[in-house]
Amino acid sequence: MASNGNSESYVKIPKIKFTKLFINGEFVDAVSGKTFDTIDPRTAEVTTQIAAADQEDVDLAVKAAREAFDHGKWPRMSGFERGKIMMKFADLIEENKEELAALDAIDAGKLYSLGKMLDMPETANTFRYFAGAADKIHGETLKMSRELQAYTLREPIGVVGLIIPWNFPSIMFGCKVAPALAAGCTVVFKPAEQTPLSALFFAHLSKLAGFPDGVLNVVTGFGSTAGAAISSHMDIDKISFTGSTDVGRLVMQAAAKSNLKSVSLELGGKSPLLIFDDADVDKAVELSLMGILFNKGEICVAASRVYVQEGIYDKFVMKAAEKAKTWVVGDPFDPRSQQGPQADKKQFEKILSYIEIGKKEGATLLTGGKSCGEKGYYIEPTIFTDVKEEMTIVRDEIFGPVMCLMKFKTVEEAIQRANSSKYGLASGIVTNDLNIANTVSRSLRAGVVWINCYLAFDRDCPYGGYKMSGFGRDNSLHSLEEYLQIKAVVTPIFNSPWL
């Protein structure tokens, strides 16, 4: 393990500047005056107190967003003008990437170096991507069957509630907020209670970029209060939620019981990675470890079920164990670290409990399996072998650095076992055989299939699930459709020489 000591020896930790709710262009206390602690997972100590939004605060945020949508200039300005403001916002994100990366490190345990190189540039570029799409939202001219002229308009859906989890606070902010704003919607955004700091900093930057008041509102607080208030609000037109399948059910129920608002859900995953006999074993090991250990396994598409064909299985197991033991867990500000602490105590304890369940159910612990470090929420990279499909660690999403490693014989068996999960978010294939790649990719019931790569995200590539992993898409122009609705306009035509 790398040092989990004094982070200031690597980076100057920024002072926390924003801790209040952001409503109608201003930072304000919660109506109740309540706050909650945000905890640093490196040390398990309190970082600061954050305003705790409740129903009254959500009401104020929705009122501001509704006023900005119904009477403000944001949905009425040209897409080009909206894009210019979004471009300025993207530039401000990039200019402040070090501070934002530090906030995600002390809030979520994310690697500071990756935050600077990946999360913040990707968030900025997502806003640039959708800024470029804002003036390219087109309707259609329809060819009617009688003396009618018709066309469609693609209009912003209205006030949207966006609720995200704690594993990618900045990237998720971008992939939810950017398409909603490009479409001309106004936003009430709720970050996870574990990771509010970067969202509040983005709110500050939005004011500097020139977003009109009420267009972007950020309410911090708990899912059972602020999140529930957003999901059931009668004046919110659309919800996009990323999180657990259980909470996704609650969001759908609240939407149905209130005003039947439109819902998009990106939920859990138990993603399979299928490695065939003809694969380069070293490359396969590298992909599989990156697939499960990236972001400490706190990623919906983690390659938590790794199936290796029997001809290379033993060699793969040996190399995977060797490589996992060299993986550096430590302070997220230490440039040597490859894995920081889990996001909070609850998740830390949940992962360790699943490791114990795996051992009790008869799986063999190949590597890891323990916490590490004198303080904070650090867990060793963990690999189980001798795993059976009915085991809890194979069925449940653990959301941590825990790999289930299994052997298969035939292509048909691999497909059947990969598809046996209730989830269908992502999947991976490692093979040099084009026929296998084609057959398996078309057979897997998953929203994303990566061939000879993994975690190959891009802002132009749609991302979302099959089955109990949800519906709707983030990223790409498909996600823009989530925030638009289609209106048909029809007029009669008289004495036209043609229809």
UniProtKB/TrEMBL annotation:
It comes from the Eukaryota. Transmembrane segments: none annotated. It catalyses: octanal + NADP(+) + H2O = octanoate + NADPH + 2 H(+). The active site is at E266. Pfam families: Aldedh. PANTHER family: ALDEHYDE DEHYDROGENASE-RELATED (PTHR11699). Homotetramer. This is Aldehyde dehydrogenase 1. It comes from Protea cynaroides. The lineage of its organism: Eukaryota, Viridiplantae, Streptophyta, Embryophyta, Tracheophyta.
